[in-house]
Amino acid sequence: MTEFEDQGLPLTALAVAAGRAVETSRPGGLVADPFALALVEAARSHVDFPTAWPAAPSTASPLQQPLLLASIYIAVRTRFIDDFLRSDSQPPTPQTVILGAGLDTRAYRLPWPMGSRVFEIDHANVLEFKAGVLGRLAVRPAPELVTVATDLALPWREPLVAAGFDPLQPTTWVLEGLLPYLDAAAQLSVLKEVAALSAPGSRAVIERAVPLPKTDDVEAKLRDFSLQTGLSMTELLARADPPDPLELLTAAGWRCTGHTVQELCATYNRPLSLAVPTQSPPPQAPSGQSRGGFVTALR
Asked: Is the separation of the CB atoms in 208 and 245 below 8 Å?
């Protein structure tokens, strides 16, 4: 067992990297990440993450099928955020902050304007593991890359500013796979800090957390999950009613747009299914059915 096996790296971070590896292997994939496979292999996880799209995904094992389905969502999410960062609809910002960066490789695989600076915030061991693997591959980031080792559940403004972040300059914020793993109070704190640190001309792309409906069935499932994981019901319920980034940033003067997962699946013709895709987009969910999806915002 290596220093970074399982206990050292969040399985969610490995799952996201594995999802990018799967999509990279697909003909006409939405994402091309030449580093994702190396990151997953270096972690030597006890979980058998798929890293390539199988010839017959619908016949994959029951253990592999949920991971393959997750890779489809990861592909759509990754491509949407990539496209947001590469969009020429607004002038690029001199600095980008990726909150909860995990094993993200955008600093290495996307084109960046000259003089760009990218800040990645996450736990020290995650950032060190990624730097070690990519260093052995002898690849360098296109922008200036600054890593900030801290816990986003705690105050993080001071270490970010100390690392060279300038709150007077426009910033692009990336919140991918972060808010759903924080309780509602921590989510609110992160979103307020993003708003407070954003100069005019800033922009953000945010993956929303899905609120849990207050029903007896959901509470029963939460109790079962609590018993299985050892997490207290109090902790689980603290995630049940997350703040809405769209409402919060709109109230702070940002121009915000919501994007449902179904809309993005239609845009990229990537239905969340292991069946052979057709040229017809998947059906749209009724408006307001879920508060998940994404928010893009311009200040």
From this structure: yes
The pairing of strands 203-207 and 294-298 is antiparallel
pLDDT in tens, 47-96: 899 999 999 888 888 888 999 999 999 999 999 999 999 998 888 899 99
Three-state DSSP state, 180 = helix
Same domain, 291 and 227: no
Same domain, 126 and 223: no
Name the domain count of the chain.
Answer: 2
d(C-alpha 83, C-alpha 188), whole Å: 26
One-letter amino acid for residue 30 of the chain: L
Kindly state the average pLDDT of the residues 145-172: 96
Q: Using CB atoms within 10 A of its CB, is residue 3 exposed (0-12), middle (13-18) or buried (19+)? A: exposed
Residue 256 lies in a domain: yes
Q: For the chain, give the longest Cα–Cα distance.
A: 54
Full strand arrangement of the beta sheet holding 171-175: 144-149, 117-122, 95-99, 171-175, 203-207, 294-298, 255-259
Q: Measuring CA to CA, how many Å separate 238 from each of 119, 122, 184, 243?
A: 29, 22, 6, 11
Range of the domain at 111: 11-208+244-275+286-298
